[in-house]
């Protein structure tokens, strides 16, 4: 860098001070998570002490024991349609079932979203069909729509489809949310027309063109969308609150929220639940961190 | 000529069929679980609808009442405050953080990025419950630190005091929304054309000028994208409000999103709640349209 | 390669979907198990199967072979909110009626109403719910969602169950929507250790559990001066435990919540305004919009507060059992000028949601009949709530010192006004009003607004 000496000093000291401030801020950002995990191992006396214990003097598992001994649910229930035969898993603490429900919900929402959005985004970007602009405008307008707006109609719709109190009532609105389509459209714009033409000349039909030419090109985008949808559905709360009631159908977020409603000041227990909800997703995040950042960035650069 | 025309008609037909065939799976979900309920929402908003009773047509009465309802107007105001405060603050804060950390050594930069992203992955419910504890009037950590350092005179009931509650909600919202913008800005800043920056520095531009004149315009698309996602995010802060304050004290943290829920399941006023939904949807649609106009003109 | 990968993805997706489609789609009708085949044993009945075999012959009443899957949602009424206790009682039930499967969900007072309301809109209302007349009769009953329980209210039942309870369990036009199980008088409580240390015990009558408004003020001041700056809290983050704040306000100067006919809210009376102004002005009494009744109880138990307004026998029993209390709890009536407190009553019982299936309704009625009327079970059901029976069951708490201590408050039981129409809305308006007062709105303005809202709701129904 070609810089005059004093200028260099000024910008260097600005940099150092900023880094220090940001380090402090980063510490405060990480603190709630630290507090959740630490809190879950504290005794109730330490939790309710007016002088907080920054590091627990005594580590106990009571909170987890309490969390797991509260309610039970079957680990899984699989029913074979039309036969009345069903398989019920062993009884486990309800919190484990909630975790399983959450994983199932997030994975299903992720897969469905990726498949439907990839196809729709491709069509919006590459097919000149009648009504394209109308559909796209609808999508753009609906993207920021909070789900509370359609709370009552959606509830009644799910009731009449007999989906209320099933995990599908949560998944379908997530899949319907058009952000994914928008994102995939932006990605698909980059597919070179010549490659598609070439495939057509080789005799490929529409579907084949899509999955041999377009799909490999937009794969990074699908990865970004998958990550985005997974986290979003894992942390979604509102649809779950409205749609799920039975203990065995709850998700982990909803389970924790209920825990708080029942035992508002038993912070140790609530923190144990919060740890259970947060740690798996954080571990996933740390493992796939590289892909996360790459995926998120890609969404923006193309978007 | 005539032949050409029919050819292109055939082409249009083929494209249309193919287009909708590809759109179909997505459209089923989008129309079924977003547009259909939205139409229902608009329709029911003209009725006095409640639990287990035939709906009564009331025309625009719900809408008229809406704009005389102090609580609704208050929650509209709160919604606007949340968006107007949190969107720019998130953008500026994350831009500042990114501008400082983007050229640090690799591990340091990614460590910072990772930490700022943690609250996003932790999830709104877990975040809400721990903040509720930290804000607690009697054994919260804020009051402990505040009183011990002499910053506050006596315990403040953060979430139970009209003057602070909304601010606390916005603060929590901020911590959960800067993660993604920081990741985005860091990579955008890394992608800035270095030759332009160097050229400007040779010309004697200060760091600040350099940033404003060259980098800013190059990261503009990222900024627009961040504006869009942060706005969406700010409208989604239902969980924080429901879990932390339930709209109180004295409706000071009610947002339209929460007030719809409140009207539906505490007051059983479905039609009225739907009318609110329609108003909110219109506001958001206008906002999105504006943002897209902005994006297109850039 | 690419193709195979995509196909694999698609295939796995389809598999997962179909798997789950079967997995989690269950309608109310099929809970908890779709085919109650005789071979299948739920946890509840499994333990008692031998028991059932030996008992059933003795008990071959006409409907012992009734078969249905029903759902019961309970609010935390004593140990009726505790899974272990309830499964025990359901096992007793299944010993007699092995083919009626009962699935229980446990609600809380913070979100329970929202949960039932969404379930009603979702066409999955529970079959049975355990709560009080203010919800079963005045809210869901009035909305036409509940089953008329007239056939459970036989002449015998009517003659046994106390008249005040009987009148609370029916709507204005005389339809019974609730079959009661237990009742109590809600009291308040003080931390006797702190009061003693602060020299405040002189202001109250430990024998009768009463005190005057003036002495209440002095006692609170003494405790506050002693250094316990959080003496008590007028909690108002939601409706949980609001009977405590209502009783406190009404008793201080002898105000009422509604008129005697239960047609109009009278919370804006002079007495109530005076009471609220007094509370607002007292040192040590916080208007706390961040907590509700349940939180207040916990914070009383852990020593944060020196008194609790949301109290009754079961609170003390449950918290003592869980080892949450390490001081001497002294239950008290709410302070009055007149010396005769009007305590807020609580009545709990069962209601049935009309889900359109006669078999389920019949099974639910059988369940109620068993829980509330079976000679042996009724005592156990009431004891599980840790409240008092609604009819004479003999001295079921014989030798129980705690319950004997609380029995002295039963005569102070006041008017059961919770069946006034517009109750759900009025309740919501009540805690909003307290929040307003807490944040500095003029008491008269806030209370008048409350009365206007509540009375509008009352006349709308």
| Rg over CA atoms of chain B | 25 Å
According to CATH, the homologous superfamily of the largest domain in chain C is Periplasmic binding protein-like II
What shape does the CA trace of chain B take? flat
- Helix and strand run of chain C: HHHEHEHEHHHEHHEHHEHEHEEHHEHHH
CATH class of the largest domain in chain C: Alpha Beta
CATH topology of the largest domain in chain C: D-Maltodextrin-Binding Protein, domain 2
- CATH C-level class of the largest domain in chain B: Mainly Alpha
SS-derived structural category of chain B: mainly alpha
How many helices of chain C? The count is 19
Number of spatially distinct domains of chain B = 2
Largest sheet of chain B: 2 strands, antiparallel
Search tags:
heterotrimer, A: 303 residues, mainly alpha, MetI-like fold, two-stranded antiparallel sheet, 14 helices, 4% strand, B: mainly alpha, 2 domains, 2 strands, 1% strand
In words, what does this structure look like?
A two-stranded antiparallel ribbon of chain A has the order 1-4. Chain A has 303 residues and is mainly alpha-helical. Chain A has 14 helices and four strands. Chain A has two domains: 5-39; 72-302, MetI-like fold (Orthogonal Bundle), CATH 1.10.3720. In chain A, helix 3 packs across helix 13, helix 4 packs antiparallel against helix 10 (206-235) and helix 12 (252-262) runs antiparallel to helix 13. Chain B has 298 residues and is mainly α. Chain B has two domains: 2-32; 61-297, MetI-like (MetI-like fold, Orthogonal Bundle), CATH 1.10.3720. Chain B has helices at 2-44, 61-66, 70-101, 106-122, 124-134, 141-149, 162-177, 179-190, 194-202, 207-218, 220-235, 238-244, 256-265, 270-297, and strands at 47-48, 56-57. Chain B has a two-stranded antiparallel ribbon. Chain B is flat. Chain C folds into two domains: 60-184 and 347-401, 3-Layer(aba) Sandwich (D-Maltodextrin-Binding Protein, domain 2), CATH 3.40.190; 186-343 and 415-460, Periplasmic binding protein-like II (D-Maltodextrin-Binding Protein, domain 2, 3-Layer(aba) Sandwich). Helix content of chain C is 45%, strand content 13%. In chain C, helix 18 runs antiparallel to helix 19 (443-460). Residues 1-62 of chain C have low confidence and may be disordered. Chains in contact: A-B, A-C, B-C.
């Amino acid at each position: 860098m070609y810089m005059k000496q004093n200028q260099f000093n000024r910008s260097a000291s600005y940099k150092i001070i900023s880094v220090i401030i940001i380090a402090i801020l980063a510490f405060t950002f990480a603190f709630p998570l630290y507090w959740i995990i630490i809190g879950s191992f504290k005794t109730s006396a330490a939790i309710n002490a007016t002088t907080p214990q920054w590091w627990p003097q005594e580590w106990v598992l009571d909170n987890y024991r309490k969390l797991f001994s509260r309610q039970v649910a079957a680990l899984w229930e699989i029913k074979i349609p039309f036969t009345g035969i069903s398989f019920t898993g062993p009884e486990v603490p309800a919190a484990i079932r909630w975790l399983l429900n959450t994983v199932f919900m997030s994975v299903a929402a992720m897969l469905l979203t990726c498949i439907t959005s990839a196809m729709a985004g491709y069509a919006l970007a590459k097919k000149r069909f009648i009504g394209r602009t109308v559909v796209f405008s609808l999508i753009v307008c609906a993207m920021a729509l909070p789900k509370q707006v359609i709370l009552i109609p959606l509830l009644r719709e799910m009731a009449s489809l007999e989906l209320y109190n099933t995990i599908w009532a949560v998944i379908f609105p997530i899949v319907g949310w058009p952000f994914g389509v928008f994102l995939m459209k932006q990605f698909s714009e980059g597919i070179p027309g010549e490659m598609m033409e070439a495939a057509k000349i080789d005799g490929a039909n529409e579907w084949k063109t899509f999955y041999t030419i377009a799909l490999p090109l937009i794969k990074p985008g699908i990865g970004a969308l998958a990550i985005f949808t997974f986290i979003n559905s894992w942390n979604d709360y509102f649809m779950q609150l409205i749609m799920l009631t039975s203990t065995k159908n709850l998700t982990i977020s909803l389970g924790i929220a209920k825990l708080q409603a029942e035992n508002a000041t038993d912070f140790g227990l609530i923190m144990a639940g919060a740890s259970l909800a947060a740690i798996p997703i954080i571990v996933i995040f740390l493992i796939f961190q590289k892909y996360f950042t790459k995926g998120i960035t890609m969404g923006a650069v193309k978007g | 000529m005539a032949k050409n025309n029919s050819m292109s008609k055939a082409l249009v037909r083929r494209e249309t069929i193919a287009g909708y065939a590809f759109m179909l799976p997505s459209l089923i979900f989008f129309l079924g679980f977003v547009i259909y309920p939205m139409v229902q929402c608009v329709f029911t908003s003209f009725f006095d609808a409640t639990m287990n009773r035939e709906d009564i047509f009331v025309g625009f009465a719900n809408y008229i009442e809406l704009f005389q309802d102090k609580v609704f107007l208050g929650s509209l105001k709160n919604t606007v405050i949340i968006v107007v405060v949190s969107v720019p603050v998130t953008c500026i804060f994350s831009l500042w953080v990114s501008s400082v950390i983007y050229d640090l050594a690799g591990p340091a930069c990614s460590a910072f990025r990772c930490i700022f992203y943690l609250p996003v992955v932790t999830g709104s419910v877990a975040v809400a419950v721990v903040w509720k504890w930290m804000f607690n009037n009697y054994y919260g950590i804020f009051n402990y630190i505040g009183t011990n350092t002499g910053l506050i005179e006596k315990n403040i009931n953060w979430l139970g005091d009209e003057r602070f509650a909304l601010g606390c909600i916005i603060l929590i919202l901020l911590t959960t929304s800067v993660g993604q913008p920081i990741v985005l800005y860091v990579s955008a800043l890394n992608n800035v054309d270095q030759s332009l920056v160097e050229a400007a520095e040779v010309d004697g531009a200060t760091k600040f000028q350099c940033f404003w004149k060259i980098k800013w315009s190059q990261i503009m698309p990222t900024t627009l994208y961040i504006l869009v996602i942060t706005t969406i995010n700010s409208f989604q802060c239902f969980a924080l409000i429901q879990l932390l304050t339930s709209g109180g004290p004295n409706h000071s943290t009610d947002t339209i999103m929460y007030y719809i829920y409140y009207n539906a399941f505490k007051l059983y006023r479905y039609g009225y709640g739907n009318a609110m939904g329609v108003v909110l949807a219109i506001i958001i649609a206008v906002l999105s349209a504006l943002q897209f106009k902005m994006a297109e003109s850039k | 390669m690419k193709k195979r990968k995509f196909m694999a993805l698609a295939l796995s997706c389809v598999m997962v979907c179909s798997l789950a489609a079967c997995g989690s789609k269950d309608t109310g009708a099929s809970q908890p198990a779709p085919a109650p085949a005789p071979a299948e044993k739920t946890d509840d009945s499994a333990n008692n199967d031998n028991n059932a075999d030996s008992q059933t012959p003795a008990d071959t009443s006409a409907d012992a072979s009734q078969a249905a899957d029903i759902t019961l949602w309970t609010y935390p009424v004593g140990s009726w909110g505790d899974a272990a206790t309830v499964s025990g009682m359901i096992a007793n039930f299944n010993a007699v009626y092995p083919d009626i499967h009962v699935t229980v969900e446990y609600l809380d007072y913070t979100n329970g109403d929202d949960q039932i309301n969404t379930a009603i809109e979702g066409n999955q209302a529970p079959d049975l719910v355990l709560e009080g007349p203010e919800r079963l009769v005045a809210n869901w009953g009035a909305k036409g969602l509940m089953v008329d329980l007239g056939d459970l209210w036989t002449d015998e039942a009517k003659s046994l169950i106390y008249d005040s309870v009987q009148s609370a369990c029916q709507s204005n036009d005389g339809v019974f929507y609730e079959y009661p199980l237990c009742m109590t008088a809600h009291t308040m409580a003080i931390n006797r250790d702190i009061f003693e240390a602060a020299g405040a015990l002189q202001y109250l009558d430990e024998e009768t559990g009463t005190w005057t408004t003036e002495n209440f003020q002095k006692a609170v001041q003494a405790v506050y001066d002693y250094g316990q700056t959080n003496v008590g809290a007028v909690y108002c983050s939601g409706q949980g435990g609001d009977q405590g704040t209502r009783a406190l306000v009404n008793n201080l100067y002898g105000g009422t919540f509604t008129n005697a006919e239960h047609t109009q809210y009278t919370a804006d009376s002079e007495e109530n305004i005076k009471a609220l102004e007094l509370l607002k002005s007292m040192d040590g009494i916080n208007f706390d919009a961040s907590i509700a009744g349940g939180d207040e109880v916990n914070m009383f138990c852990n020593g944060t507060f020196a008194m609790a307004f949301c109290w009754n026998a079961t609170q003390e029993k449950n918290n003592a059992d869980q080892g949450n209390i390490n001081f001497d709890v002294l239950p008290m009536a709410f302070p009055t000028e007149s010396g005769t407190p009007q305590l807020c009553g609580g009545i709990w019982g069962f209601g049935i949601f009309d889900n359109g299936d006669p078999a389920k309704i019949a099974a639910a009625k059988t369940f109620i009949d068993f829980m509330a009327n079976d000679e042996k079970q009724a005592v156990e059901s009431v004891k599980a709530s840790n409240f008092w029976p609604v009819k004479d069951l003999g001295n079921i708490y014989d030798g129980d010192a705690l319950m004997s201590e609380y029995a002295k408050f039963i005569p102070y039981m006041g008017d059961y006004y919770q069946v006034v129409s517009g109750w759900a809305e009025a309740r919501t308006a009540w805690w909003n009003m307290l929040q307003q007062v807490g944040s500095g709105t003029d008491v008269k303005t806030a209370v008048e607004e409350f009365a206007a809202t509540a009375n509008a709701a009352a006349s709308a129904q």
